[in-house]
Specification:
The chain has 8 helices and 10 strands. The chain has 248 residues and is an alpha/beta fold.
């Protein structure tokens, strides 16, 4: 579904990505793990061209999106839904209007159909009957659920999850992971998850990729990742400060 080839990205003198290569299989969840500040979110933002690389290619369904004109890039972005780290809900809008926003902005769907679809999505994420509330009235976990409903409202082929459990207690984090797994089973999207929450993400991932020192050091199914002899993986799993990972 997505293929990243020799990706390089710097911000002034800071080199973040130094030749990252990774494939995201269609219909599977791939989780990118790594230390804080290693470039996970930077890599994620390249997948739908919110950031463009200094060097390298990103293929979505065989099309290199780094070289597309803006009108074609908008079309490719229509394949994506995004659950942002802080949910990114608009405070001045109700939950219903936040979820409905993409439909109203990008389609000519009637208000009756919008109502039915939004209420359906809210039910699917456990927020049935909560559409009239404002973001300030929601708990952290409820905001994430509302963000996921909005990410799914356009029936995307690909959903990007940027640290979806940041700021949540372990019980709420588990609930969000279970929700991701349940919606993935229902919708069948290709999922890309950025996280440093291990081992919890292993339970919902088909593949785990380790980003360290600007490159993908390892990628494998969770069971093989846990037992990997790669010293980078072992340093991360066991939380050691000394090893091949450059700790910022």
């Amino acid at each position: 579904m997505i293929r990243v080839v020799n990706l390089h990205k710097s911000f002034r003198a800071q080199k973040v990505l130094k030749g990252a290569n990774l494939e995201f299989p269609s219909g599977k969840i791939t989780t990118i793990v790594g230390t804080s500040g290693c470039g996970k979110t930077v890599l994620l933002k390249h997948l739908n061209a919110l950031l463009l690389p200094d060097e390298g290619e990103i293929f979505v369904d065989g099309v290199d999106i780094t070289k597309l004109p803006l009108n074609e890039l908008y079309e490719i972005r229509g394949k994506f839904g995004v659950l942002f780290q802080g949910a990114a809900l608009l405070d001045s809008m109700t939950v219903f209007d936040n979820v409905a926003f993409p439909l109203r902005e990008k389609t000519k769907t009637s208000e009756g159909d919008i109502k039915n679809k939004v209420e359906g999505r809210l039910e699917q994420v456990g927020l049935g009957g909560m559409g009239g509330k404002f973001p300030a009235e929601l708990s952290g976990g409820m905001k994430k659920r509302a963000g996921l409903a909005r990410a799914l409202i356009m029936d995307p082929e690909i959903v990007l999850f940027d640290e979806p459990t940041t700021g949540l207690d372990p019980i709420l984090a588990t609930g969000i992971h279970q929700l991701i797994a349940r919606t993935h089973a229902e919708f069948g999207f290709t999922g890309v998850l950025v996280s440093h929450t291990i081992p919890q993400v292993f339970d919902i991932s088909d593949y785990v990729a380790m980003l360290a020192n600007g490159v993908i050091e390892a990628v494998s199914p969770p069971a093989a990742f846990r037992t990997s002899e790669n010293p980078v993986v072992q340093q991360f799993i066991h939380g050691k400060t000394e090893g091949p990972i450059q700790v910022l």
